[in-house]
Write a structure and sequence with these properties.
Layout (H helix, E strand, L loop, with lengths): L1 E4 L2 E4 L4 E7 L3 E12 L6 E6 L5 E3 L7 E6 L4 E6 L8 E11 L5 E4 L3 E6 L1
Parallel strand pairs: 2-11
Antiparallel strand pairs: 1-3, 3-8, 4-5, 4-9, 5-6, 7-8, 9-10, 9-11
Length: 118
C-alpha cells in the first residue's frame, strides 16, 4: 500500500513537502508520481519520476515543484515551493510496482489535502 503525508494549510508563497511510502511485500517499483484533484476538476498529473530518476512535470508546476525518490525507503517526495492558491487540491501518490507475488500494476495512496491561502 501507499501512505501519503505532508499536506496542510500554507500561505501563498510558502512551501510544503509531501511524502509517500510504499509498504508491503514489494519486488520492484517502476515509476512513481503525484497527481492532484481540485474541487470540481479532474485528477491531473503533477509530476512523475521513473525508476532511473528521469522526471517530468505539469507546466503549471515547473520550476516550483521537485519530485524525488529514495529507492532504499520505497518513498517518493514532492517538494512544493512558491505555492499558489490554485495549487489547492487533494494530492495523490501513485506507483507502478510489482509485489512479491503478483504482476505490475498501479497503486494509489489515500490522498493528502493541500490548501494554499491567499
Amino acid at each position: 500500500q501507499l501512505q501519503a503525508s505532508g499536506g496542510g494549510l500554507v500561505q501563498a508563497g510558502g512551501s510544503l513537502r509531501l511524502s509517500c511510502a510504499a509498504s508491503g511485500s514489494i519486488f520492484s517499483i517502476n515509476s512513481m508520481g503525484w497527481y492532484r484533484q481540485a474541487p470540481g476538476k479532474q485528477r491531473e498529473l503533477v509530476a512523475h519520476i521513473t525508476s532511473g530518476s528521469s522526471t517530468n512535470y505539469a507546466d503549471s508546476v515547473k520550476h516550483r515543484f521537485t519530485i524525488s525518490r529514495d529507492n532504499a525507503k520505497n518513498t517518493v517526495y514532492l517538494q512544493m515551493n512558491s505555492l499558489k492558491p490554485e495549487d489547492t487540491a487533494v494530492y495523490y501518490c501513485n506507483a507502478y510496482l510489482v509485489p512479491i507475488q503478483g504482476v505490475l500494476r498501479a497503486y494509489w495512496g489515500q490522498g493528502t489535502l493541500v490548501t494554499v491561502s491567499s
